[in-house]
Every structure is written in C-alpha cells, then in structure tokens.
Write a structure and sequence with these properties.
Order of helices and strands: HEEHHHHHHH
Distance between the termini: 58 Å
Structural class: mainly alpha
Number of domains: 1
Shape: globular
Number of strands: 2
Strand content: 5-15%
Radius of gyration: 22 Å
C-alpha cells in the first residue's frame, strides 16, 4: 500500500455496504466500525481494567481514574455544583468516546471517526437535545421558553432578541461540530502534504527527494503527530466542557 493510500485510510470514510432498516439505507462504513470498536472497549474492556486487581493493568487503571476525577471536579461539579455526581457518567462517557475516536487514527489501518463531519454532527445533535431536555426538566417548559428573552429587554425588542437567542443556540451546536471535525482532520491533511513533498521533489531528482526532503519531512511529520496527539485530548476536553457549560446555562438561565 502506498503512502497516499495509507493516509486516505485515516482521512476518508470507506463504505463497505448498506443496511436497509425500515426503508432507510444506512451505510456500513469504516468509521462506523471504529465507533463500534470504541463502544466495545468502553462497555467491556474498561470495566475489566477498573475492576481487575492485576498489577499489569494498574497503570491503565490509574490513568482512567485520574481522568475521571478531573472530569468530575473540573467539568461536572464546576458547572452543576457539588451535588451533581449523577451527571458524571454521561460526561465521562462523552469524553472517553471522543478521545478514543481521536486516538484510533494513530493505530495502523485505523481511522479518526471525528474527522467525519457526520460523526461530529451526530455528537452535536445529542448535545442539542441534552440542552433542551435539561432546560425543560429544570425550569419547566414555559420558563425555559422565557429564558430566550433576556431580562430587562423592552417589549418592542422581542421580535429581534428571540430570533437572535434561538440562532445563538443553533450556532453553538454548529460550532461544536465544526471545531472538532476541523481540528481532527487538519492534522491528517498536514501530514499528507508534508509526506507528499518527498514524492514531489523525488520526481524532480531522486537525491533531492530522499536525501534532502525526506529527513526534513519526517521530522516535521513526527512533530505534527505529537501535536495532533495533544490536540486529541484538548478537543475531547473542549467538546465535553462546552457541552457541560451550555447544559448548565440552560438549567439555570434567568
């Protein structure tokens, strides 16, 4: 397999077939397969690691517990208060699900599902319904609808402010999807461009491509890969944190 094909395996989704459910044709794709692998890891492997007393699994158990504690203290309790531990499972699941999708792209023949706008849009839609449901549950339908009208605004500004607030809600959801998608796919594209320089200059002169360009490109690719590894954690945190902030605002908005 050529370098171009290897990188396309990480960037592009590949549809292997179609599944017809109630008249809808659903694609069976590589990114879907990646998400199923992550779901299996979180449902089966994680409980084994956490409950196991095996000393070889201890480092993994510590990492999971540290991340879980960080999410509990800096995201859930920070936004929902100290008596909000019932919300930890959702946000911990969201964080680990996004993080593992980001990291799976580093595995040979794996793919970064969050580099697919359909995947990030699906995650953002779940956030949208979480915001609406949490707001209505906490305030009641009438008070939640009133929250789209800022307090102290004159009546004649309602026709302007209400659409602005509604558009603002959809804009935040849209930004969640685009931010995660763009950050995850951009790293793969940069790696693809850097490695392409080797073949571009190599086509001009074999020595220019292998002796001069290749070492520089490889060093830059390693640097970008390390940066992308950091971005994988940051983007998982940002998506989870913003989801918590938007949900908390919907529940407490006056």
């Amino acid at each position: 397999m050529e370098i171009k094909e290897i990188l396309e395996e990480h960037i592009l989704d590949h549809i292997y077939g179609w599944l017809n459910i109630l008249g809808f044709n659903l694609p069976i794709s590589k990114h879907l397969f990646m998400m199923l692998i992550i779901a299996f890891v979180m449902l089966v492997i994680f409980p084994i690691i956490i409950r196991s007393k095996n000393r070889f699994l201890y480092p993994l158990r510590v990492v999971i517990e540290v991340i879980f504690t960080f999410l509990r203290d800096d995201i859930v309790r920070q936004n929902f208060g100290d008596n909000s531990d019932d919300k930890i499972p959702y946000f911990a699941t969201l964080f680990f699900f996004i993080l593992l999708m980001n990291l799976l792209g580093f595995v040979p023949y794996g793919a970064t599902a969050t580099g697919n706008i359909s995947v990030t849009a699906g995650l953002s839609i779940t956030t949208f319904f979480l915001i609406i449901f949490s707001g209505i549950k906490a305030q009641g339908l009438l008070h939640y609808l009133k929250s789209f009208i800022p307090s102290g605004v004159p009546f004649w500004l309602y026709p302007i402010m209400i659409p602005v607030e509604v558009i603002g809600l959809f804009t935040r959801i849209f930004a969640l999807a685009i931010r995660l998608f763009a950050n995850m796919i951009s790293g793969h594209i940069v790696i693809f461009v850097l490695l392409s320089f080797i073949f571009i200059f190599g086509a001009m002169n074999i020595y220019l491509g292998l002796i001069v360009t290749a070492p520089i490109a490889v060093i830059l690719v390693l640097f970008v890969s390390l940066l992308e590894l950091l971005v994988s954690f940051i983007q998982a945190y940002i998506f989870t944190a913003l989801t918590a902030i938007f949900t908390a605002q919907a529940m407490t908005h006056e």
